[in-house]
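Running co-folding for adenosine-5'-diphosphate.
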Amino acid sequence: MPLHSLPMAEVRLRSIEKQFPGGVHAVKACDLDISDGEFLVLVGPSGCGKSTLLRMIAGLEEPSGGSIHIGSRDVTHVDPADRDIAMVFQNYALYPHKSAKENMAFALRLRKVPKAERERRVIETAKMLGIEDLLNRKPGAMSGGQQQRVALGRAIVRDPACFLFDEPLSNLDAKMRNHTRSELRRLHKELQTTSVYVTHDQEEAMTLGDRVAVMKDGVMQQLGTPLEVYRNPANLFVASFIGTPAMNLMTGEVENTQAKLATGFQVTVPSAVEGPVTIGVRPQHFRVASANDDGAVSLTARLVEPLGDLADVHFEAADGSKILARLDAELAPTEGATCPIVIDRDRQHCFDSTGQRVD
Ligand SMILES: Nc1ncnc2c1ncn2[C@@H]1O[C@H](COP(=O)(O)OP(=O)(O)O)[C@@H](O)[C@H]1O
Ligand SMILES: [Mg+2]
């Protein structure tokens, strides 16, 4: 019998606002439709309002305005316990004096699920997470990764309409974080429960999300699949926040669709753009020029970081500004050398003087 018995649910936010007493406007006019079964990631720098938005979906924080639907129900003013959601936090929040099994079964006991059914769900979930051997242990006798798995298990046994995650991997070391991230992806494939996942880590967002919503200062900047957001960042903020290493941003002036950049590069821009412009180029989208390339610019390599097949080369341009290029290691210059560099055709991003993308 599948673990899932309840209908799954979409989450719909309309004009959600949060103004804290004292004046912090943490979330501004947020509209968001999360589809049934989708894994949506809210990503942005610390303090941008991610947790506040998630806590409003959970019912732990009252919105100052707007509405929240889960499935067909308006839950804007519904108690957290009655929203049919399960939340997983950064700090696991397990009961220290209960075993893993008791922690996982606790919410089911409160809901008066019969013992046999509780046992069945806990065992099935423990198998799914590979934690059968831990069921009798208390949190103090488990590693961080194991505790987080129990916390996930506790959420899964409840079989909610929606999972809410607030930076659940932040307390794990790098290896455990990567491992648990893949686990989460696999679990989501299996369970297909609507999930909202908060992180400040853009890489985590890109690898986990069906779609990502990028936030800054309480305002949603862009919503799209990881590739959409990576390939077509809506503004300068998203451009510099998403992707690693960060996109190079070069300023210049446009004259007759030609942007002349302070770094020495010249690129063609859409005819709608005039005056000051910023051109973004990801490190991966520079190349060492070959003989038949037009528009190569000579740059001086100040630092070379070998990565194996590739090398990260930190260049200094004629105007003194810095450019990071990820180049084929075979072709990369040595430190101190000067090298002709071109921008991959069609891979540059153009932003107008207000920072908005122009195509
Ligand atoms: N209970 C609160 N009272 C007042 N201000 C708060 C409260 N909770 C969060 N804030 C403020 O709201 C903003 C958003 O916080 P938060 O949602 O926790 O950001 P994030 O999760 O993206 O790091 C921050 O400026 C934070 O200081
Ligand atoms: Mg937070």
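Result summary
Residues 1-5 have pLDDT under 50 and may be disordered.
Residues 174-191 form the longest helix (18 residues).
Job closed.
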